[in-house]
Every structure is written in C-alpha cells, then in structure tokens.
Design brief:
The chain folds into three domains: 84 residues, 3-Layer(aba) Sandwich (Rossmann fold), CATH 3.40.50; 59 residues, Dna Ligase, domain 1 (2-Layer Sandwich), CATH 3.30.1490.20; 168 residues, D-amino Acid Aminotransferase, Chain A, domain 1 (2-Layer Sandwich). It is 26% helix and 29% strand. The chain is built from ten helices and 17 strands. The longest helix is centred in the middle third of the chain and has 20 residues. Bound molecules: adenosine monophosphate. The site of adenosine monophosphate has 13 residues, from β14.
C-alpha cells in the first residue's frame, strides 16, 4: 500500500492529470507531473513538475526517484523511455500502453479475446486500401494506426473514388467498415491490485465532429441490454493485461450486439460525470487502485446525470452556466482557446 503523504508521479500534463491530482490531494497525496509542454494544467495543481522530453532518460529517472508510484494520463506516452523509471511501480503496466497505442494491435488483441471490432484491414499503401475496400466495402473510415485522437487522423471513405482522391497520409493506417449503430457507449472499469473489478454505469456518448460532446447515464435501453457483454469483454481485457487502475472501452450499440471501437488505458472524458454523479469518481478510484487502497463505490449518486463538454469558444459561456445553480462547472485552466480544444465540462444531476 502506498501511504497518503507519498508522491504519485503522473506522466502527461493535461486535464486528466489535473483532475487526478485534485483527487489525489483529497486523499493526502502529493503529485509530480512529467510532461514535455511547459504550460501544463496538471502541474498548476501539483506539488512538483518536471518539464522534459519523453526521451530524456536522466529527467525521467530523477522524476521517478521522487515518486512512490507512477501512472499516466496520456496513452501516447512513448514506451521505451519508461525503462528509466526502474524499480518504481508503474501502474497500469506499460503493456496496456503498447496495446492501445496501435489501433491494429488493439483490434487484434480484443478480437483474440472474443470481442467484435468493425471489420478492419491494415493499410500501408494505395494498393492495400483498394484491396481493403474490395474486401470490406464502403462506406468506411481510414485511420492512422498511431497518435490519432478526437477525430484527428481519420478520413471518411464514402466511395472507392474518395479513396483514389485522398491526399495520402503516409503513416501506417487501418481501414474499417462504417458501423451502423443506434448509440455509442463506454465501459469504465476500475481494477484494483488484488483483481477486484468495479464498473461505473455505462453512459451513452454523443460525438460531434469526432469529439465527445455529451455523456449521459443511465443510458437508454438499447445500450443497457448490451452492457453485460461489453463488461465481460472489459474484464477479460483488464485481466489479460494484469491491469491496475481505470480502463475505458468505447463501443457502438448495434443490432448484432456491442461492436468494440477503441480502448483507453486511463481515466476517460466519458467518465467526467462521476465526479459529482457517482459515489466515488473515476479519478479517486484510479488513485485508490494504483496506491493499493480498497476501491470506492461506483454506483450512481443521482437518478440521472449528464456531462456536456465545453469545446473551444463554448467555455466563454461560464458566467451563464454558473447562473444556473444546478450546474457543476469545471474549467481546465487552459489559457489559449482553440477550435476543437477541450476547455472544460458541465455536469448536471437529476436528483
Ligand atoms: P475514434 O477516434 O476511433 O473513437 O472515432 C471518433 C468517432 O468517430 C467515434 O466515436 C464515432 O462516432 C465515429 N467513428 C469512428 N469509427 C467509426 C466506425 N467504424 N463506424 C462508425 N463511426 C465511427
């Protein structure tokens, strides 16, 4: 067990790290952020900050020596430099990062455990794409295997002519068939060091332009009837990875059952509602899990809860949002407003 008062290292300096650090502080821990960007919104609320490149082994080793445990809030942390962390426990295990960083490896891993992703094929050049389209058909989506997020690194392919007209992205890709879904939902699981696993109510998620706009729980019946199968898969994955902490899986609810979209080896935007809407938040449970503490209750703390993201200029409405006493406003402290940037979120409970 890692005792309160100890320092938790967090790799990544964004809003997820910020909300993890706030939860850690509540339990009496200190946080040390490691991130390459100088303007870290996680470092602002943490005791220590190492601003260094991921491959700066000396900085990574020095950072690790100050920590009792290290975790991550960003799934694209390069894995090789993490060797510099040495004997300090790194939770979740970096094999979760390796799997989640490559869409192709992730789909193969999940399919191997009995999960059902959309039909997919690896694509390295135009011939591969033409072959993938012949096999899977259109419409489909071409995605970069690595480093894509919030709809970036994705191209909708409506027809074979779209594929021919595409400006070739040049990186390793995967083509997947377009899924006809009635809703999107996520499974947010937390696995403790002793293997205990708890699940939050699965929210229905709405995306706009590839970015999460809204998460609401409880989800409609069309989702609820698929949650059981999706949780079974999540438990298999967590166990297979020897996972400790919060793990998120995104699914499409379809007539044929839940179709796996992707996983995130971390706390997740579709779980932000748990701060007020669950008995214990995803952030607190992640900290509890990595510190070897018992998990808190994941039950809903209201009849219903809804979380809306504040993207770009939407965060400018903060005064109007606060004028409604039922709103819980979270702003991440990002100084620069950019289109498509997650600036904050608002949660509402129905009691
Ligand atoms: P991703 O970054 O892969 O999660 O994609 C972002 C969003 O694009 C998803 O949440 C869906 O709304 C949509 N999307 C991605 N892949 C597919 C697919 N194969 N079929 C239908 N919609 C998709």
């Amino acid at each position: 067990m890692i005792a309160p008062g100890s320092t938790i290292g967090i790799l990544g300096g964004g809003q997820l790290g910020r909300m993890l650090a706030v939860a850690a502080a509540q339990l009496g821990y200190r946080c040390h952020i490691f991130a390459p960007e100088a303007d870290s919104v996680a470092a602002e609320v943490s005791a220590e900050f190492t601003c260094a490149e991921w491959d700066d082994a000396e900085a990574m080793a020095r950072f690790a020596r100050s920590c009792a445990v290290v975790t991550y809030e960003f799934e694209n942390v390069p894995v090789a430099p993490l060797a510099a962390i040495g004997e300090v426990p790194l939770r979740p295990h970096p094999r979760a990062l390796e799997t989640a960083q490559d869409r192709l490896a992730e789909k193969r891993f999940v399919a191997g455990l009995g999960g059902k992703p959309a039909p997919f094929a690896p694509v390295d050049d135009r011939d591969d794409l033409a072959a993938a389209i012949r096999e899977i058909g259109t419409p489909g989506i071409l995605k970069t295997r690595r480093d894509g997020y919030d709809g970036k690194g994705q191209w909708r392919i409506r027809t074979a002519a779209d594929a021919e007209a595409l400006d070739w992205p040049g990186s390793p890709l995967v083509y997947e068939g377009f899924v006809d879904f009635s809703a999107e939902f996520s499974v947010i699981a937390c696995r403790a060091a002793d293997g205990t696993i708890r699940f939050y109510d699965s929210p229905a998620n709405r995306h706009e332009n590839g970015i999460l706009a809204l998460s609401a729980a409880p989800a409609p019946a069309a989702v609820l009837e698929q949650v059981g199968a999706a949780r079974e898969l999540a438990a298999e994955i967590a166990q297979g990875l020897g996972y400790v902490g919060v793990l998120t899986l995104e699914f499409f609810a379809t007539e044929g059952g839940p179709v796996f979209n992707e996983m995130a080896p971390r706390v997740h935007n579709s779980g932000h509602w748990t701060i007020e809407g669950a008995v214990t938040s995803q952030f607190e449970n992640h900290i509890r899990a990595i510190c070897g503490l018992p998990l808190g209750d994941t039950a809903l703390a209201a009849r219903a809860v809804e979380m809306r993201n504040l993207i770009g200029e939407q965060a400018g409405d903060w005064a109007a949002i606060l004028a409604d006493p039922g709103n819980h406003l979270h702003l991440y402290g990002k100084s620069e407003i950019r289109a498509g940037r997650k600036m904050g979120h608002v949660t509402r409970l129905t009691l």
